[in-house]
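pasting for ref
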Amino acid sequence: MSTPPVSAAHTPPEPSAMARRASRWAGSALAAVLCAGLLSCGWLVYAGKIDWLPARWTREDALHGELTHLLAKQLSNAWLPDQAARLERAGSWLLLGDTGPRVRVGCPGWLFLAEELQVNHHAQANAQAKRAAVLAIRQALARRGIGLLVAVVPDKSRIAANALCGLTRPPELNTRAALWVASLQQAGVNAIDLAATLAPLGTAAYLHTDTHWNEAGARAAAQVIAARIVASGFHATPEQAYSAQPGPMARRPGDLVHLAGLDWLPLRWQPTPESVAATVFTEVPGAGAGQGAATKGGDDLDDLLGDSQLPNVALIGTSFSRNSNFLGFLQQALGAKIGSFARDGGKFSGSAREYFANPAFTQTPPKLVLWEIPERDLQTPYEPITLAPGPVSQH
């Protein structure tokens, strides 16, 4: 059977001379971009900056695309993809008000971390694994005569819910912090959910373009934690009084602006910046520090070794402990120095894993570990924490 002839009405028109020239330029430009991208990604591979597989991964990670996501994230750090991503983020924000996959826009001037609004895979199993980890660490610390206090920091999207303006927080998240803390308390762990402390402050407890609490929230949390420590009969040392004075008003860059990829834009094009007057803490001379050694006449062996002036409270946790002067407010409320081992991006396990392997813990252990944990990390996958065997307390 022969093919019917194509009528003139259905014959595609010949491209114009200008279209042919433009197509050649477009094809050349596309080929150049693809070659540049290939070369920049190839450089990452040649320089050994690519981990094809993480040190620990599971079949579940492979099936859910976590491995390919990790590889794509590493490749995106090449120069060309990075510059293209910056331009895409700027265009999306300036034209559409879009902040990308990691940040959500709430009421005018308010940004929220998208992670706080997501339900994690295997949420309950992850939460149970982390509960078991806390119980095991509490038991290991108790054998050394060390106490543990767990403080859970509620999500910004929970406390500042009035600033969500259309953003939806899944109802499954409403009870996750309270139930997790209650399960620890039922097992005998000294744990506190800071939601009840911060809820009365509402939007006044958190920064607008940052995921962390502001000084009002940090001060309220520090005071209730200090009160819990004192009520338990624990005496924090070395004693030290602090004075506090407000500093000058200054712009405070928001970490959510950075996560949205917009912090490189001119300030007037970024989300509305926020200014704060950061409190300046100063040790009060002669108030607490060193007095014990003076009254003992320098005969105490701990004083000779300098151990008596080491803080007997160690703070581990995340960037919440490092923001808005939380440590300063806590030291002032306790009237004592505190050893801070929190780290940015530490999440549930990072800071704890590093601290328990640190000579600061293995050689000069504290008497109390304060573990600050953000609510949003309670149901993420658990990364194991190892607490090396140590001497058993005789007390």
